[in-house]
Amino acid sequence: MDISVHKVRRRRRIAAAILAWALALPAAAADAPTPMGQKGHWTPGERLYSYCLSEVKGMAENPLCVGFVSAVADVLAEHTAVSGYRACIRNDLTVQHLVVAVKEYLKVRRDLVTLPAATLVARALAHEWPCK
């Protein structure tokens, strides 16, 4: 694959993540402030679970879930481990594929929501797209 195509795709993913977070800011502002919790992580797994498995009127997915999954996926795409997990995410996948994989993992592994949200996303993506 041409390096410029890779750069364009990466920029699109980053732009989509930024847009998702920007659209979600009013909803996030309504949440009560949360002090830094689990081992220095800002977002607990319980909150990610509620973001990803809740509906937002007029949207296919909760933008907070999409933004969070996109951000962790971008770090993993740079071949950097997140909480010790690595994922080999193919370039032909969309953010929607990633969100669906994370949502399905959260449904099956509800017992893991005590983990930090970043760990849950990394673990879900590594489960779906392990590096060989």
General description of the model:
The chain is an all-alpha fold and 132 residues long. The protein has a single domain (3-28, 39-128), classed as 10k-s Protein, Hypothetical Protein A, Chain A (Orthogonal Bundle). 58% of the residues lie in helices and 0% in strands. It has helices at 3-30, 45-52, 63-77, 95-108, 117-128. The radius of gyration is 14 Å and the shape is globular. The two termini are 20 Å apart.
Provide a compact summary of the structure.
The chain contains five helices and no strands. It has a single domain, classed as 10k-s Protein, Hypothetical Protein A, Chain A.
Distance between the amino and carboxyl termini:
20 Å
Structural class: mainly alpha
- Per the CATH scheme, the topology name is 10k-s Protein, Hypothetical Protein A, Chain A
Q: Could you estimate the helical fraction of the residues in percent?
A: 55-70%
Mean of all residue-level pLDDT scores: 80
